[in-house]
Amino acid sequence: SLVTKSIFIRRNTPLHSKVLPHIEGILQEAANITNGSRFVILARIYDITALIGRNTNREDELSGSDRKDLLHKIGKVVDYIEKNYMEPITLKSAAENAGFSEHYLSRIFNRAVGSPFHLYLNKIRIKHAESKIILHDDSITEIAFSCGFNSIPTFNRLFREMKGCTPLEYRKMRWEHNFQKKGD
How far apart are CA 20 and CA 81, in angstroms? Predict the structure, then answer.
């Protein structure tokens, strides 16, 4: 719905010139609160909402080429995470790499990928840790650090949340499973 999504209104556009007086009215009313100010502010908010609803078409928010460019940049972020998951990646570093602001990347990443940035990053790190736990004899601590975690308790907690067991239990189950397969 219109109310739950962020909308950027560029300066010097017809919509901006229509909305700005209402925003200024809200600020004036908020600076001089009196009886009835609440209703004046709410009325201005409803006016702004109506103006946005009438003057924007959410379906055509991005043209085809803009949408492709956006998806390409999100792909760059996903690729950046995949190639650098073992490093201390931040939303800021990923945003700078793709040419976005942190706030904008946070919002569009969640919409495009279906997962907040940090959760997606942790899923990638856990996926790589899971593979290393199965394929290598490295200690769980070494694996956690090599996958970008800087805290063993955080790694263990996230691993348990995503896999349903601790990393050590996971290794034991996988080794037992592989041993049983070889014994058949």
Answer: 39
75 within 8 A of 67, measured Cβ to Cβ? no
Radius of gyration of the chain measured on its C-alpha atoms: 24
Percentage of the chain with pLDDT > 70? Answer: 85
> What are 14-47's pLDDT values in tens digits?
888 888 898 888 888 888 888 888 888 888 887 8
Asked whether 16 and 24 are in contact (CB, 8 A), the reply is no
- 7 residue type, one letter: I
Whole-prediction pTM value? 0.62
- Quote the Cα angle for 49-50-55, to 5°: 100
CA 134, CA 169: separation in Å to the nearest integer?
11
- In DSSP notation, 43-100 reads HHHHHHHHHHHHH--GGGSS-HHHHHHHHHHHHHHHHHHHHHTTS---HHHHHHHHT-
